[in-house]
Amino acid sequence: MTECASCPPTNPQITANPEAEQDLASLCKALAHPSRVRILKILLERKSCICGEIVEVMPLSQSTVSEHLRILKQAGLVQGEVDGPRVCYCVHPIVLEQFKALVEAL
Amino acid sequence: MTECASCPPTNPQITANPEAEQDLASLCKALAHPSRVRILKILLERKSCICGEIVEVMPLSQSTVSEHLRILKQAGLVQGEVDGPRVCYCVHPIVLEQFKALVEAL
DNA sequence: CTAGTATATCGTCAATCAACGATAAGCGAT
DNA sequence: ATCGCTTATCGTTGATTGACGATATACTAG
């Protein structure tokens, strides 16, 4: 039972939920790049669900932005809806809440 | 102003705090691997601040666990204190709270 | 000082990531 | 059907990651 002075008291519950841990890791991985955090913020702040607009705002090429969107979409954090010739992206509220809950549970 | 039906209404505030976004991305990156989430959970759940004990519990080599700990420490989520021949790791409560706050603010 | 234990670092290798330009695919309008 | 616009995908490249064994470092005990 090693213990040190500077460590805070911790709850002794024995959780170990491998699935939740994997989910948290996956969601974190999706947000492990500043550009993707930025994109998520943009989607949250704008009333519209833009897509090409993101490319205009970001200092990245269209293909790179598209790739970041793919990663966010694959993680479930974002969903894209085809709207004529363009695609309308928006945050998936439920998955974002799940992410918040997983982090809060730490 | 593209907008689509399935998207939730979002707050129109213009935040754009690049520093906070970078911080969030860095913290997420540190937790972007299941093993590191696992290690963090272990540190939170155990009353002790173990280190070699982590190696025993994880299906990874000592050097790999050490590397994961280094990444967590570099992100500030964890701190290690030398305790004789061994090192006592524990979660840095303030940084963890900052992480929670950044996620909650999404 | 030496031996033993615990942890960190090094070197390597395969795999994954991030970025880009080029190109394909989807759709509306002509 | 074709043109023009928007977005996705492909192929490439250099950088980073994750894993390991081997080794170096740090500390205690004897």
Structure in words:
Two copies of one chain form a homodimer. In chain A, α2 crosses α4. The longest helix of chain A is centred in the first third of the chain and has 13 residues. Chain A is built from five helices and two strands, in the order ααααββα. The two termini of chain A are 22 Å apart. The model of chain A has no long low-confidence stretch (mean pLDDT 88). Chain A has a two-stranded antiparallel sheet. Helices cover 53% and strands 11% of the residues of chain A. By secondary structure, the first copy, chain A, is mainly alpha-helical. Chains A and B meet through α1, α2, β1, β2 and α5 of A and α1, α2, β1, β2 and α5 of B. Chain A binds a DNA duplex (30 and 30 nucleotides) through α4.
List its traits:
homodimer, mainly alpha, two-stranded antiparallel sheet, elongated, 106 residues, 5 helices, DNA-binding
